[in-house]
Write a structure and sequence with these properties.
This protein is an alpha/beta fold. The protein has 21 helices and 30 strands. The chain folds into two domains: about 5-490 and about 500-505, ANL, N-terminal domain (Rossmann fold, 3-Layer(aba) Sandwich), CATH 3.40.50.12780; about 525-650, 2-Layer Sandwich (GMP Synthetase, Chain A, domain 3), CATH 3.30.300. It binds ligand 6R9.
């Protein structure tokens, strides 16, 4: 793709300087970059001092056996103490830690003092169930306060948790229980989604009939929906029966900085899920620092809301560990953005006076599709910073977010990171960076990232290639659970001494980084590499398109041909000329080579629960194959809908 057309899309001229007021009082200023540049390890040692250690670390990084890193290895701390108790001890016990908003409209606020009592009781209960330091606990819960309490209780007793997203099937759950050899499962009777009580416990019961799950001794069940629930005596225990009768004080034990904190299985758009292992001191240091820096958190006055699910890494790092380590007040919402109406999120922002909002491009595009008039009905004036994560955010959606949610005044921070990186890596700083719609821009202070070509040479400004991380960072994954060789092969084999993230990226003329999607998704059309992200961005820049997913389908003439699936905006009609109009639009934006061969308007796109498009399934559709594994899809009926559209789909061969 020519650099001219790319520049067009990147709209480099559009920059938004930080609001003066924010810049004047920003937690982190320009000087952080220079400090970290001059002494990277010293910088991270300094950040580790945000935490309370029972033994202060004297070592920062041990990289004597790459790629196996140890951070702050001779330090000891308790992660739950850092996220809860120390705030109470500092006199902030009455501050709200979590404002919980249930989907049916019930709500409950937990102060730090209450959270301390709940976490202490749950920790005692796990111990009574025989959970020891090092034992794995699977957590399979809806978005309710007990999810946060359960994770912190595990951390408190040194039992690594493995949170499995509540929407996953019994099979997906069984695979994860087996791989981690979990001993206890924490679940609920059900949760509320889209106005309905959805059962969770039956999936646990079914998972536990599968081979390899025999070591699960107990199932701890939170009562949420009060629906009928099958019960296995001797194995199943109600949360309220065992937790509520425990003492409200619990003495936290200090663990090594490298003690495992959790295993989280990656979304699994391909192959066997990988159990990503994170440990304690480095992970908490970087999640706390980045949350402080990128959201400019003022714990006394801000109300922070991350809309992710706790079953996703964003929920771990930016609902639980980062914000709580910083003493933040957060909103936790159980349900979907459109229950019972499409303004539900904005109603919540108004109700709690949310100041910092962190969400995903997929949600922003859904709101664009529903129309500008919906957020306009609510008072969103409390908002001061908007964050995005999970996918490249196309400039169109970025601008819509800033204009319609942020009233054209709030910075938008596009944060690039992964389950594997544990915390944010590339992002603007809201009080420093002049932001560019669509770009994650610069590595955070203390982070070393660049873009290289096939021969591992750094590309010049204006060039594209592979995104790599060139120095170890505190919250990096330590290995893949039980498979060190797969850890080496997956992340460290392609380029020597560099972590390869799997993403393609470009640097613009200013050296700012633009993420271009997974390299596996790059299309090869008549000898040209074309990124799915760029074609999707071009489609969404057309006023009639709300969302687009692009795949390369095998093509006898051109190796691959571009096939696009588009969701139209609220008022747009699917008339005869539409497909041609869109093809012409992409051609004009990016050049004729990037013009999609087929464009199919659809009602929904197949997505994982974290909102990522499952292009693998769309490729199956585009190539008329039987569908592959659909178990990680949010809604498998979406694929039936798409397939029924196929025979009449517009296809042109010019
Ligand atoms: C946090 C999270 C990681 C993959 C990552 C990349 C994509 C995440 C992004 C982004 C462009 C951003 N991704 N944030 N792409 N811009 N701001 O999403 O973790 O679920 O492991 O996914 O998501 O492709 O490699 P995870």
């Amino acid at each position: 793709m020519s650099n001219k057309s790319l520049a067009n899309l990147m709209s480099e001229e559009r920059r938004f300087p930080p609001p003066a007021e924010l810049a004047a009082h920003a937690n982190v200023t320009e000087s952080a970059y220079a400090a970290a540049e001059a002494d990277r390890l010293g910088f991270w040692a300094e950040q580790a001092r945000r935490l309370s250690w029972s033994t202060e670390p004297t070592e920062t990084l041990d990289w004597s056996n790459p790629p196996f890193a140890k951070w702050f290895a001779d330090g000891k701390l308790n992660v739950a103490y850092n996220c809860v108790d120390r705030h109470v001890e500092a006199g902030n016990g009455d501050r709200v830690a979590v404002h919980f908003e249930g989907e049916p409209g019930d709500s409950r606020s937990l102060t730090y003092a209450e959270l301390q009592r709940e976490v202490s009781r749950a920790a005692h209960a796990l111990t009574e169930l025989g959970v020891n330091k090092g034992d794995r606990v699977a957590v399979y819960l809806p978005m309710i306060p007990e999810a946060v309490i359960a994770m912190l209780a595990c951390a408190r007793i040194g039992a690594p948790h493995s949170v499995v997203f509540g929407g996953f099937s019994a099979d997906a759950l069984a695979t994860r229980i087996r791989d981690a050899d979990a001993r206890v499962i924490i679940t609920a009777d059900g949760g509320y989604r889209r106005g309905k009580a959805t059962a969770l416990k039956p999936a646990v019961d079914e998972a536990l009939t599968r081979p390899g799950t025999e070591n699960v001794r107990s199932v701890l069940v939170v009562r949420r929906t009060e629906q009928d629930t099958d019960w296995t005596e001797g194995r199943d225990v109600w949360w309220h029966d065992i937790v509520d009768r425990q003492p409200a004080e619990h003495t936290p034990e200090a663990f090594d900085a490298e003690h495992p904190l959790f295993i989280l299985y990656t979304s699994g758009t391909t192959g066997n899920p990988k159990g990503i292992l994170h440990t304690s001191g480095g992970y908490l240091t970087q999640t706390a620092y980045t949350h402080h820096a990128v959201f400019d958190l003022k714990p006394e006055s801000d109300v922070y809301w991350c809309t992710a699910d706790v079953g996703w890494v964003t929920g771990h790092s930016y609902i639980v560990y980062g914000p709580l380590a910083n003493g933040a007040t957060s909103v936790l919402y159980e349900g979907t953005p459109d229950s019972p109406h499409k303004g539900r999120w904005w109603e919540i922002v108004q109700k709690y006076g949310v100041t910092l909002l962190y969400t995903a491009p997929t949600a922003i595009r859904a709101c664009m599709k529903w129309g500008d008039d919906i957020p306009a009905r609510f008072d969103l004036s409390s908002l001061r910073i908007l964050g995005s994560v999970g996918e490249p955010i196309n400039p169109e959606a970025w601008i819509w977010y800033r204009e319609n949610i942020g009233a054209g005044r709030t910075p938008v921070v596009d944060t690039w990171w992964q389950t594997e990186t544990g915390a944010m890596m590339i992002s603007p700083l809201p009080g420093v960076t002049a932001t560019k719609p669509g770009s994650a821009q610069v590595p955070l202070p203390g982070i070393s990232a660049t873009v290289i070509d096939d021969e591992a040479n750094e590309v010049p400004d204006g060039g594209g290639g592979y995104l790599v991380l060139t120095e170890p960072w505190p919250s990096m994954l330590r290995t893949i659970w039980g498979d060190d060789q797969r850890f080496r092969d997956t992340y460290w084999a392609r380029f020597e001494h560099r972590y390869f993230a799997g993403d393609g990226a470009k640097k613009d003329q200013d050296g700012d980084i633009w993420l271009l999607g997974r390299v596996d998704d790059v299309m090869l059309v008549s000898g040209h590499n074309i990124s799915t992200t760029e074609v999707e961005s071009a489609l969404v820049s057309h006023p009639k398109v709300a969302e687009a997913a692009v795949v390369g389908a095998t093509d006898p003439q051109t190796t691959q041909s571009i096939c696009a699936f588009v969701i139209l905006r609220g008022t747009a009609k699917e008339d005869d000329g539409l497909v041609e109009e869109l093809r012409a639009h992409v051609s004009k934006q990016l050049g004729p080579i990037a013009k999609p061969k087929r464009i199919l308007p659809v009602a929904e796109l197949p997505k994982t629960r974290s909102g990522k498009i499952m292009r693998r399934l769309l490729r199956d559709v585009a190539e008329n194959r039987q569908l592959g594994d659909v178990t990680t899809l949010t809604d498998s009926s979406v694929m039936d809908l798409i397939q029924t559209k196929l025979p009449g789909a517009a296809s042109s061969d010019d």
